[in-house]
Amino acid sequence: MTRPSWDPFDPGNLPELSAQTEGRGNLVVVVSTPSIRDGKWAVGAAVAVADGFSEEGRKVTVVDADLDLPSLHELMDADVGEGVVDLVDFGASANRVVRDAPGARYSFISTGSYAVDPEKVLESEIWRVFCEELVAAGHTIVVHITSGVPGIHAVLGPATDVVVLTSDGRDDEHLDSLLVGCESLVRGVYGPHTGARPAPVDTGVGEAGSETDLRDAEPAPASEIHPIDGSGTSSGGPTTSEGPPARDPVPMRPGPAQREPAKAEGKRRAGVDSSFTDGSSSGRRWIWIGGLAAAVTGIALWQTGVIDLPRSSSVDSESEVVPESAPDAVPGEAEVDPVSSRPPPPEPEVIVPGPSPLFQGLAETSGALTYGAQEAAYQTWDDALDGLGDLEARGLPGLIVPVVVDGTTYFRLLVGPFSDAAAAGGVSSGRLDRNLRLAFHLGESADADLVDARMAELLDLRVPTYPVTVEFENGVVATRIYAGAFSSQAEAALVAGILSEAGLGEAPLVSITGVSRGR
Known about the structure:
single chain, alpha/beta, Rossmann fold, 8-stranded mixed sheet, 4-stranded antiparallel sheet
């Protein structure tokens, strides 16, 4: 059966849904394909569909089934809270997961807690029965899902109607395989008017087309972290000579009062001394020996390739970070959400760094590290350390990433980071995370003993760090100390607080670069 032809998306001209028996609603699955996955356009279009159907007098609930990369709650100006995963994995009630959309006639369900196995969640009988009961009660459910999410066929199976979001003619072969068995349910195929990169939409929360997506703000490479002149400059944030990409906002119906969204900003750091430096601009430096001995030591450190770090007198300040009274989580199954934080701490800035005095004139040749695999998640720091020790005993490169879920601290145990999926899959069977692109830079050195000593000190401060080899041209090699591995600035907020309590609050958030660990 031939699919409907592609049309520019128009929220004022929605497709007709299939007729249902009296009293029943529809289950509408809005599928977005890879050609327009970038940004928030697709989920914004799904919200526009829900809004349009609600204006027709339907009782509508819009659902975010993108368990790998949730975004619906952001358009609702809400915490991710409890949602699909909590309903299925943790027994949350419908009253807890269904929330009213602000200033609208429809309700919404977020992804909820972190999904260790998204496919298992979406294929669960609990989720199927929940949707069936809502539809039987007369609700129209609008589920947004991206075509690559594991479990999508379980979402498409009970659908009464399907809406496809794709750029004109770019995904025909992909759709042929995706829609096998449900071609007859496709009510419309839509996309952005220009085919350009879609923009955030006006849901009444922010100004259409103007909101800055944190994933768009690319920090400078971590190899360019230290200015050399000590003068210090500032800028308005990460910019490029080409300017921002073209955007095609989804037209939306008028919403409630708008607010000005926060913008991601960067700035240069300065104020290094002549012998060593770290990721911050503070004047706190290691003091080795007084008088002439200190000068001699500084020269030696410069010649051997040392970049040093600030010390902190705060050793026990992290003791309140972890709720020790909370029950231990089952490895791999803790309800960890990489985005959620209620209330969210202030987001750290992405620093636009300058060149390193140690490696002045040398370009870093190692690439981006954005892949990792989750092995487990714990509710205490000590348990996470035990898990890390087990990984190291197996020869796996582990790291601990603290996150917050509804006020509770969890510790993700990851293997990585790696440069590609093949490298990650070659050493770990854990759930793959493809977007671990940011970390805090805590210094780098060509002296392995110094790196080991500094990491031991940071461990005593409960600062979760890991070493990464970085390569420069002319064969220069160093070891960089990172803290955390995040997909966004918001996700990095908890570790930013930990660093601040440890006296390292000025450590910059940078792109993770280097050589895949465990290589």
